[in-house]
Amino acid sequence: MFFFILFFRRLYSLINRRFIWTGLLWLIIHAVFAQNPSAIWYRQPARNWNEALPVGNGRLGAMVFGRAGDELIQLNEASLWSGGPVSRNPNPGVARYLPEIREALFREDYEAAAKLTQHMQGLYTEAYQPLGDLLLKQDFSGQPADYYRDLNIKNATATTRFRVNGVNYTREIFVSAPDQVVVVRLTADQKGALNVTAAARSPHPVTKSAVGRDELVIRGKAPAHADPNYVNYNPKPVIYGDSAGCKGMRFDWRVKVRSTDGTVSTDTAGIRIQNATEAVLLLTAATSFNGFDKCPDREGRDEKQLADGYLKKALTKTVDALRKAHVADYQRYFNRTSFTLETALAVNLPMDERLKRYAEGGADPELETLYFQFGRYLLISSSRPGGPPANLQGLWNPMVRPPWSSNYTTNINAEMNYWPAEMVNLSELHTPLLTWIGYMAKTGRETTKNFYNARGWTVHHNSDIWGASNPVGDKGKGSPSWANWAVGGAWLSQHLYDHYLFTGDKKYLQTYAYPLMKDAALFCLDWLVEDPQGRLVTAPSTSPENVFITEKGVKQSVSVATTMDMGLIWDVFSNVIQASSQLGIDADFRKTLSDKKSKLFPLQIGKSGNLQEWYKDWQDEDPQHRHVSHLYALHPGREISPLTTPQFADAARKTLEIRGDGGTGWSKSWKINFWARLHDGNHAYKLLRELLKLTGMEGTDYAKGGGTYPNLFCAHPPFQIDGNFGGTSGIGEMLVQSHDGLLNLLPARPDGWATGEVKGMKTRGGYELDMSWKNGKLTRVAVRSALGGNCRLRVTSALKSDGKTRLQTAKGTNPNAFFQQPENRYQTTKPETPANGVYLYDLATEPGKEYVLLGV
């Protein structure tokens, strides 16, 4: 970029300024943005939603299409969902089926067990809703030329530029978190050339009204209920009326002209701005959502007052002040972490062409680092403290019945959204999920009681803004293979504990996380039963969305003790044991968990050398199924590791080889994390390249559909944001791992990343790392310690002190309590076991200090 600026400065000094300045400035800006590695840019408008560009502040979201004459900006508000508080006992009396199911399972009548299990289902979740569209109709004659649009993830701003009849038009759009408004700035470089109408529409019934000459107000209600998109048996899948006055939240959104030098008039058809050079529109919205357990209608908040308050506050600021506050707020998160790789030649192409070139085998390290940062951008834009967690599509959704209701799919996808949060230095943005776990636990305690006569809490396959926790399926219409998976509470508890391990916040652990983790473990204690050999198993048990073939050749999905179930229970028991020890409480409960943990049904290696997925060594209906749920113990769990359980790590590797590298977008993302945990950087990198395969496909091909849309959204297909977050997490796992009792630096660096630098990565134990490496060897490592304690490093190239830091060869077990390893019956080696080309160091750290190490 520097060379472009220098070139044009010299050219500028040689040419008559009066005649060429406007066009030259346009070329400079265009060239600079095209070379900006933080900009995702294009030569044409979006043809569809998967080419539009996402902006958001965690609560308000917009998809910007970049059309010249008829711009479309699709809008969302994070709390706008169908429905209302869940029924806490939607299918009374179904607990009576549980003993019958278990009896059928232990006599190996899996078909009867599945039919009985199907009775134990409740209602479907509700659906995340679109707010509406802002339509900008711009009047001009002639065809646009010199078209350019981008999303700059360095300042979270979308820009569109084009020229018509010698006039250069610019649109700049950002969503401010400090001021809770969408800002749309329209400019023309010739006085009076800007003529535009801003209109609004919504898929929901709305009323529109003009307020004064420059404001449009749109009010309506979300549906009282919306069926999932895959339910096709109801004559009215979307219902707006609710006679009880409970379901169906209200919304209010407003568009106002902040400033313009043109004339303005408004009616219900829209806001008309004429003969202007510049116009700034402010857009905001609010809903009546008042909490997961409050009727959004009769007990709702005053959405009108909320929207009016946001708007009035923003109107006190100039557009420059709004932008400055927005950029400062965004960059305080984004600038914490950077990742760069050695680049032989920058790739100066629009993103669609760039992805195509990459898919054809072209080298593009900047695209890989941009994808890592794009995941961070999406999390900052869709998950902010105080709001709902990022859902299946983050914040962005144009459909009343979106794919899978755009809900929280808790058998993998909701968790995957937050895998990168702690490691990429966005810990605060993890809190929306952590808070929502508490709401799900409140409904989950009643679910476990009503469905299973059990204590504690859990969540099943799906949840929503109302904290749904029951098995879905509409009381028997869903397949048990997904609807009746019962251990979501154990998985979510891992997030509660990981947040503590990264932050060291003992008050949070004691007052919030530990009680929830303990109750999740309590459900697991009640859920476990003894099999005929006296081993503790789950029954009924499924491996999400997968099907096995029995010895008799019959396809079934319900059995006992699936490997995923047992891995999740091992994990929650281990975490509660460690947390109670850290807090010095619940010694008796800790012993109970330890005793039960030793009796859990064991991990098994099958006849093909793979980690078994099922109770028996059954064949899969689909050997290359997209879910690889039984490898939870490898990632994000920690029961299996090459450093501690090499035999089972080899079995996990064999499982992945049998599963293959195909699958949907999020499935490929999970596999990147798996291969990184196996310390196979080249295989992880292969899958990263495949994840970035350009696709414009619509529909769902579970085996071959995965890839990336032109706007960098992950294609399931259709779009699911978990694939983006899982990809960022996978890159993070390639760079640093901290789950094995030490900090493992560059554990899965692929050959293609021979030289690079990463700054601001976080690890368990409260450490923040900067690392640079050249030709595969570390050249500098900076460790910043927030909590103090022994920092143990595992590296594949020797390090030395910078002269100020005392570095020692590691000895014995790591004394740092944050790196305590759970008791593991499969462990045969220690993380500190010497290996060829590996160095292990101990670094005594104090809170608030930085320690620098250099390559030898």
UniProtKB/TrEMBL annotation:
Residues 40-290 form the Glycosyl hydrolase family 95 N-terminal domain. GO terms for biological process: carbohydrate metabolic process. Gene3D superfamilies: Golgi alpha-mannosidase II, putative glycoside hydrolase family protein from bacillus halodurans. The keyword Hydrolase applies. GO terms for molecular function: alpha-L-fucosidase activity. InterPro entries: 6-hairpin_glycosidase_sf, AFCA-like_C, Alpha-L-fucosidase, GH95_cat, GH95_N_dom, Glyco_hydro_b. Keywords: Hydrolase. Residues 737-821 form the Alpha fucosidase A-like C-terminal domain. Residues 319-735 form the Glycosyl hydrolase family 95 catalytic domain. Pfam families: Glyco_hyd_65N_2, Glyco_hydro_95_C, Glyco_hydro_95_cat. This is Glycoside hydrolase family 95 protein.
